[in-house]
Amino acid sequence: MGAKLLVVEDEQALSELLTYNLEAEGYEVRTAESAEDAELLVAEEIPDLVILDWMLPVVSGIELCRRFRSRAETSALPVLMLTARGEESDRIRGLSTGADDYVVKPFSLPELLARVKAILRRAAPERVADVLTFEDIELDRAAHRVKRGERGVRLGPTEFRLLEFMMESAGRVLSRAQLLDGVWGRDAFVDERTVDVHIGRLRKSLIRGRETDLIRTVRGSGYIFGEH
Ligand code: CA
Fold this sequence. Notes:
The chain has 8 helices and 12 strands. The chain has helices spanning 12-24, 35-44, 61-70, 87-94, 109-123, 157-168, 176-184, 192-206; strands at 4-8, 28-32, 49-53, 79-84, 101-105, 131-134, 137-140, 145-148, 151-153, 173-175, 215-218, 222-225. α6 (157-168) crosses α8 (192-206) and α7 (176-184) packs across α8. The longest helix is centred in the middle third of the chain and has 15 residues, at 109-123. Calcium ion binds next to loops.
């Protein structure tokens, strides 16, 4: 069963987009349009993670986060904050908001999904599958091991994270910028050609003989895993 998420966002279009994509990942999603609604839902049932918009009418996301932190039942409730680009993002870096992590709007969905997964993994490691599989490829996060069929695949740490990120987003086109964000982190000083170099190494390690290449280059867009 998927983790239970609560999305608190007053922008309906964004809320729907998030719900659609999070449900597609197997999460159970509830939504609230205001901090007040969110508090009612949390009083009914404490979710595993709250995705919380900073800019909400009346009671802000920051204030709601503070309220969660001040109550014993929700003091450890994981919160991923959504912030607007600009002043807020600088302030949120400096301020102790009590959020576990944040993403700046407009964000890419793979980035948001990766952050949701990372927070859930930290909060409740048993909720996130240790082993990812796709066709004959098996990636064991806990043991840091990759197998293709019966063969062990040796990967460097970056190639391992790259494969993990691509397997999590299998079937979706990932731009170089999304791969940089998801694998190297937003603050890394790495240029997009580095992605190509590591994709090249990953391919080389994954393919022996007649094995299929599960990574497809999408001209002008990036890469997709698991479509051939
Ligand atoms: Ca808003």
